[in-house]
Amino acid sequence: MKAIINQSIVPAIRNMKDFDQLLKTDYEFLVLLNAHIAQVKPLVRRAAEQGKKMFLHADLIEGLKSDEYATEFLAQEIGPAGIISTRNNVVLTAKRKGLIAIQRLFMLDTLALENSYVQLEKTKPDYVEVLPGIIPHIIREFLEETKIPVLAGGLIRTDEDVRLALEAGATAVTTSRKALWQKQEA
C-alpha cells in the first residue's frame, strides 16, 4: 500500500539550509527540488533517519537525465518515497518500481488542460501536481474529471492561496515558501 499524504503543506526544498531546518519539523513528506546527483542518496538517507519521506523531482536532479533508466536508478539505489516528473515515461517507471508517482502538469491554457487528461489516462499517477496552484476551479475540474488526488504547486504565496487550494479539493500544497511551512506545520 502506497503512503497517503496526510499534511496540508508539503515543503519543497531548494537548498541544504532548508533541508536541515525541515528535518526538525513534524512534516512527514518533503520534496527535494534542485540537487546534484551526488547529494541525493545521503539526503534521502538522512531524511529517513528522521522519519521523513522524500519525493524527488526527477526533472531537476543535476547530473541525471530524466528518463526511465534514471528512474530505475533512483528507485533501486536511492529509495525515495516517490518521484515527481512532467515526463510520462518517468511516471510510469516510478509506478512500476513501487514508488509514489506524481505527475507534474503546467496549466498554461485550455489545450494544456485537455492534453493533460489524455496523458493521465496513460500514466494513471498516484497524484497530480497542478501548476500554478492558485486556480481553484481547475483543481476542482481535475478532481471531477480524473479522480486523481491533486497537489497544488506554483505561485502559492499566501495563507489565502493555501486555503483556496485546499477548499477546492487539493490534498496538499507544495511550496518552497518558508513562511507557509511555519504557519502550516503538520
TrEMBL record:
<comment type="function">
    <text>Regulates expression of the glpD operon. In the presence of glycerol 3-phosphate (G3P) causes antitermination of transcription of glpD at the inverted repeat of the leader region to enhance its transcription. Binds and stabilizes glpD leader mRNA.</text>
</comment>
<dbReference type="InterPro" id="IPR006699">
    <property type="entry name" value="GlpP"/>
</dbReference>
<dbReference type="InterPro" id="IPR013785">
    <property type="entry name" value="Aldolase_TIM"/>
</dbReference>
<keyword id="KW-0319">Glycerol metabolism</keyword>
<protein>
    <recommendedName>
        <fullName>Glycerol uptake operon antiterminator regulatory protein</fullName>
    </recommendedName>
</protein>
<dbReference type="GO" id="GO:0006071">
    <property type="term" value="P:glycerol metabolic process"/>
</dbReference>
<dbReference type="GO" id="GO:0045893">
    <property type="term" value="P:positive regulation of DNA-templated transcription"/>
</dbReference>
<keyword id="KW-0804">Transcription</keyword>
<keyword id="KW-0805">Transcription regulation</keyword>
<dbReference type="GO" id="GO:0003723">
    <property type="term" value="F:RNA binding"/>
</dbReference>
<dbReference type="GO" id="GO:0001072">
    <property type="term" value="F:transcription antitermination factor activity, RNA binding"/>
</dbReference>
<keyword id="KW-0694">RNA-binding</keyword>
<dbReference type="Pfam" id="PF04309">
    <property type="entry name" value="G3P_antiterm"/>
</dbReference>
